[in-house]
Design brief:
246 residues, mainly alpha, Tetracycline Repressor, domain 2, 2 domains
Length: 246
């Protein structure tokens, strides 16, 4: 059943964290595309469109993700939707804002302090599980971003690159000695490889077609890849630290 009804802060405060995140992400938007200042009704309409976009991506009925599908989900005409978004890319940016805002409160928060050598295996496992959990929760939006990026959408490519920067920076800092100083080029390059590895493996875990293929190939299911990925992450960090110390 379509839940894309009016999304206000009152409703969000009653236990709808995604709705609250959507409302917060849209706080910096002061006018619609016609230059009209957004009042409460305008904000609720914009939030309803963003929520309908996320719901359309989460819907498994196979309907293509289009502006018209989103407009139907939000119970709006296309002219009303165009008051807020000119195309699918702009709408996706708005849908990604609350999703990526959640990243700073989940897996990125675990990179905020240095992982001691004695706790490295446990910290890597915790970090991997948090990153995988983030992807599982927001897979439909993240996969759509990646599909559009791979198809040449420059705005989605920029969103994808921007989203990866904090991850790369955080991993690069873990490669160091613990002073959390600005990582050098080599550390950032290694962190980029490790971050890409994580994303690709977790893509396998969160995309249905890949899950079927992995199950047939591994005879164990894609979740087994997480343990292997966690081990590689810990080995890479430990090896880098040892090399740097010598």
């Amino acid at each position: 059943m379509n839940r894309a009804s009016a999304i206000g802060r009152e409703a969000a405060a009653e236990g709808q964290p995604l709705d609250l995140a959507i409302a917060r992400a849209g706080e910096t938007v002061s006018h619609n595309l016609n230059g009209q200042r957004l009042g409460r009704k305008g904000r609720e309409t914009r939030e309803r469109i963003v929520r309908a976009a996320i719901e359309a991506l989460e819907n498994e009925n196979g309907e293509p993700f289009t502006l018209s599908a989103v407009a139907r989900g939000a119970s709006l005409g296309m002219s009303s939707l165009y008051n807020y978004f000119t195309d699918l890319s702009e709408l996706m940016v708005a849908a990604l804002e609350p999703v990526m805002g959640a990243a700073s409160e989940s897996y990125l928060a675990l990179l905020g302090d240095y992982w001691p050598d004695s706790e490295l295996n446990e910290r890597c496992a915790q970090f991997w599980d948090s990153y995988a959990g983030f992807w599982r929760q927001h897979a439909s939006v993240l996969h759509q971003r990646n599909r559009m990026s791979d198809a040449g959408d420059e705005l989605m490519l920029a969103c994808r690159v921007d989203a990866g920067q904090p991850l790369v920076r955080g991993i690069a800092e873990q490669l160091g000695s613990g002073d959390m100083a600005e990582p050098g080029y080599d550390a950032r390059a290694m962190a980029s490889v490790l971050g890409t590895m994580m994303e690709r493996i977790i893509t396998v875990q969160t995309q249905p077609n890949y899950r079927k293929y992995a199950t047939a190939s591994l005879d164990r299911g894609p979740n087994s890849l997480g343990a292997a990925g966690t081990r590689l992450l810990a080995l890479a960090i430990r090896d880098w630290r040892t090399e740097a110390a010598s």
